[in-house]
Amino acid sequence: MARVRAGINGGTLGTWIKLAGPESVEIMAHAGFDFVVVDLEHTTLDLGAASAHIAMARALGVDPLVRVPDHGRSVIQRVLDAGAAGVVVPHVDTVEQARAVVRATRFPPYGDRGSGGTSRAGRWGLLPRADYLDHGNEQALCVVQLESETAIRNAGEILALDGVDAAFVGTADLSMSMGVPAGAGEMDRLVASALAAAAATGVPIGTASATADQARAALARGYDYVVVGNDTSILAAASVAIVNALRAPVTEGAAR
Q1: The one catalytic residue among 42, 53, 91, 135
Q2: pLDDT tens by residue, 51-76
Q3: How far from 149 is each of 68, 146, 155, 185, 200, CA to CA, in Å?
Q4: Strand, coil or helix: what is 213?
């Protein structure tokens, strides 16, 4: 099957969505992000909240991805039928796991995903069945997270699989799995090997960044896209900055 590997639909800049209110997606869309990633792995968000976020993103022209909590086929199928542009799947360590994840995102004969054409992905039954199936097999993105030493060492084989559309290097979990601090030499060499594997296979690769400076550095290093910050941290940082600025001592000159 000829897969479309256009990265995150051409966008390079995304952010995590961790709060339930759809205003988070609305704000990120108005801010100019190319895509959002609704996080079901590290939050208490449920499928109802994810569906609302997806609808808001679609309405505002922002690509909605969903990071699912695990490799379970049920959640993958439901968020794709809810209209997600794709799924980000954590802890994909082996070729066998990657193959199973791909099959969960694709319809037969390429996978095991069930047909749900009366969902949002099928425009509530208004989209012709052939178009619904074609979109699921050719457009919905399967993004695998590489976040262990095993995953990185298997990156070449994993990314060569038909149906793996993009990779995401989870550096926080990678450093923990290796028992080394972020940026350690051995970890840096592994990351470099993942970037090389992505370049060799033509698969877009991204990572997360906490700040704009970190994101610039990641893109300069060769990552194709970055997921920068998240709605909760952006709110927290702005709140702290305002409080600290207002509680800081006022100099005599400034007071005048």
Answers
A1: 42
A2: 999 999 999 999 999 999 999 999 99
A3: 21, 8, 10, 13, 19
A4: helix
Question: Does the annotation mark 42 as catalytic?
Answer: yes
Inter-CA distances, 72 with 43, 92, 100, Å:
17, 12, 10
Distances (CA, A) of 96 to 143, 151, 154, 157, 197: 15, 11, 11, 10, 18
Domain of residue 46 covers 13-230
**Is 32 within a domain?**
yes
SS3 at position 207? strand
Angle between helices 73-81 and 95-105 (to 10 degrees): 40
Q: Please check whether residue 1 lies inside any domain of the structure.
A: no
Q: Which residues contact 151 (CB under 8 A, 6 or more apart)?
A: 91, 92, 93, 94, 145, 158
Condensed to tens digits (0 to 9), the pLDDT of residues 89-126 reads 999 999 999 999 999 999 999 999 999 999 999 999 99
CATH of residue 74: 3.20.20.60
pTM equals 0.91
Question: Is 7 within a domain?
Answer: no
Is residue 249, in this structure, part of any structural domain at all?
no
Q: How many domains does the chain have?
A: 1
